[in-house]
Design brief:
binds zinc ion; 15 strands; 20% strand; 2 domains; single chain; alpha+beta; five-stranded mixed sheet
Length: 357
């Protein structure tokens, strides 16, 4: 009896080990698991049929499982939920290839209601959360959103941007940046200013120097296709809250540096921008006296910032201005701004006081 009991236990153990090892073997098994979880999530959202009001945020296509790509899971999402990427209802968020897979399904049930269910990879299975209204408005607190775990910032900020009909190019950059913070939204204004006030002449090309760089740089390099790999974008360490103080003057609120240059004629110019965040105007615009404006990691604050910047999208001049311009008349002039060892801020503003000997 005792031996029989032990062998039964051994069989059960073997079956358990076997099924755990092979539960996700191959993409078909993964799709089955995801389909079950997606059906559960749809049921928790009362199986919506107005698919234009439904969105799925996922890192499928970036996350890899057991060495396999996961992009084909977007087809599973499409089949089960009725949403698709070409209508902007499947949004693929950039993550590292070894990040856990997730799907966040949100349904816009009214102008300010947005229940969301999160499906997250939990080892070899998917966990499906309870619905949570994530629409950011007065009276909401970040505490409730923390139940969404490591993706709360990304998920809450992105689905609010989608629900607020933010422009495609901003959403695209936010997907690359992996969240839609106020910083990435400022890039929308910076590029608006560059295109309006610093257009290229025939033969010229842009180089953008992130000095300082902040979240907006991911919008700038996405929207303008100025990538580091193609030498269109460069960055140096200088915090946006820092002051550049010369013997004559203190410069605050520095934006980035825009270079327009024609490599054939070796002529162009460099323009250092100033960015005014207009925080007081944003607080007035939001009109939420209970909001903690100091919690920079609070996604609510960032959603409010983004709404404020988008409301001002046609007026980048309210936020941006020019601190200084320098002409470029040779390759050597350009190199003093971009080559190894260059200090573009010193070149344009003069030596920083602490650097002056
Ligand atoms: Zn950011």
């Amino acid at each position: 009896m005792k031996v029989k009991g032990l062998s039964l236990l051994a069989v059960i153990l073997v079956v358990l080990v076997f099924s755990a090892g092979f539960a996700w073997a191959g993409m078909a098994a993964l799709q089955d698991e995801a389909a079950v979880a997606l059906k559960q999530a749809m049921a928790k959202l009362d199986n919506p049929t107005d698919t234009q009001n439904l969105v799925c945020l996922t890192n499928a296509g970036y996350a890899m499982i057991d060495g396999e790509g996961t992009l084909s899971l977007c087809k599973t999402v499409r089949d089960i939920c009725g949403v698709s990427a070409d209508t902007g209802n499947i949004l693929r968020v950039h993550t590292a290839f070894d990040a856990p897979l997730y799907f966040a399904l949100a349904h816009k049930t009214g102008p300010d209601t947005l229940p969301l269910v999160l499906i997250s990879q939990n080892g070899k299975a998917f966990a499906v959360s309870e619905p949570l209204d994530v629409y950011v408005k007065k009276g909401k607190s970040f505490e409730a959103f923390k139940s969404l775990g490591r993706y709360s910032f990304s998920v809450v900020s992105m689905v609010n941007g989608w629900a607020n009909d933010f422009p495609e190019d901003l959403m695209q950059a936010a997907l690359y940046h992996d969240h839609l913070c106020g910083g990435v939204s400022t890039g929308f204004l910076t590029v608006g200013y560059i295109k309006k006030h610093l257009p290229l002449s025939e033969g010229q090309q842009y180089t953008y120097i992130g000095a300082p760089a902040w979240c907006q740089d991911d919008y700038i390099l996405t929207a303008m296709n100025l990538t580091p790999g193609k030498s269109g974008y460069r960055s140096m360490k200088f915090n946006w809250t820092d002051t550049w103080k010369t013997a004559e003057k203190a410069y605050t609120n520095l934006g980035g540096l825009v270079i327009r240059y024609d490599p054939k004629t070796e002529k162009g110019d460099a323009t250092l921008l100033k960015f005014d965040w207009r925080r007081d105007d944003m607080i007035k615009f939001t009109n939420d006296p209970d909001m903690d404006w100091n919690g920079l990691k609070n996604p609510l604050l960032h959603v409010y910032y983004s709404r404020f910047y988008l409301a001002n999208k046609d007026h980048p001049e309210k936020f941006l201005s020019v601190i200084a311009t320098k002409s470029i008349d040779s390759q050597a002039d350009l190199d003093r701004l971009v080559a190894m060892g260059a200090n573009p801020l010193a070149e344009i503003l003069g030596k920083r006081v602490s650097d002056v000997k």
